[in-house]
Amino acid sequence: MSNPSKKVIKLHEFAVVEDIVKTVLEEAGKHDGVTSIEEVLLEVGDLAFLNPAQLIFAFNTLKKDTLLANAQLLIANMEARVKCQECGYTGAMEPEGGEEYHFATPFIICPECKGPVDVLTGRQCTIRNVRLVVDDNDDKGGDA
Ligand SMILES: [Zn+2]
Predict the structure, then answer these.
(1) Which of 5, 36, 54, 65 could form a disulfide with 133 if both were Cys (CB 3.0 to 4.6 A apart)?
(2) Does the residue 55 lie in any domain?
């Protein structure tokens, strides 16, 4: 499938969005009369290390010539939760540094004892909602 001679920019976000676009289009294909997709709501965990601006950029690039051409990507943030292996602390884990955090190798430690933690939630990137435009009468409007 992949052509090695083809130069492809492979940002992490692109790979993720490629997957999302594929999933959404597959899902849309299961419904009759879907003319377009209006909106995709994505839930992104604090520890997914995905840059929302990059996600939207990737989405806008990858959606071309698909049912998603007019779709908007909405991103909802999901708070990360961790469990400490040392002291048992369970709760929020705030990634520090915002944007820069994305580029650094994250080092996730317990906010209480600085021990190693397991990430319970916050690593995922999940499609929460997809708004489809379904044409069930034969009226084909020309404007978009
Ligand atoms: Zn701890």
Answers:
(1) 36
(2) yes
Q: What is the pLDDT along the chain (144 residues), one digit of tens a residue?
A: 555 555 555 578 999 999 999 999 999 999 999 999 999 999 999 888 888 999 999 999 999 999 999 999 999 999 889 999 999 999 987 655 444 444 444 567 888 898 999 989 998 999 999 999 998 765 554 454
Closest Cα partner for 46 from 83, 79, 13? 79
Does residue 143 lie within any of the structural domains? Answer: no
Starting at the edge strand found earlier in the chain, the sheet holding 72-78 runs: 72-78, 34-45, 125-134
Domain range holding 110?
Answer: 12-134
* 43 touches 78 (CB < 8 A): yes
CA of 99 to the centre of ligand 1 (A): 25
Number of domains present in the structure of the chain: 1
Residue 105 lies in a domain: yes
pTM of the shown model: 0.74
CATH of residue 28: 3.30.2320.80
Query: How far is ligand 1, taken at its centre, from the CA of residue 82, in Å?
Result: 10
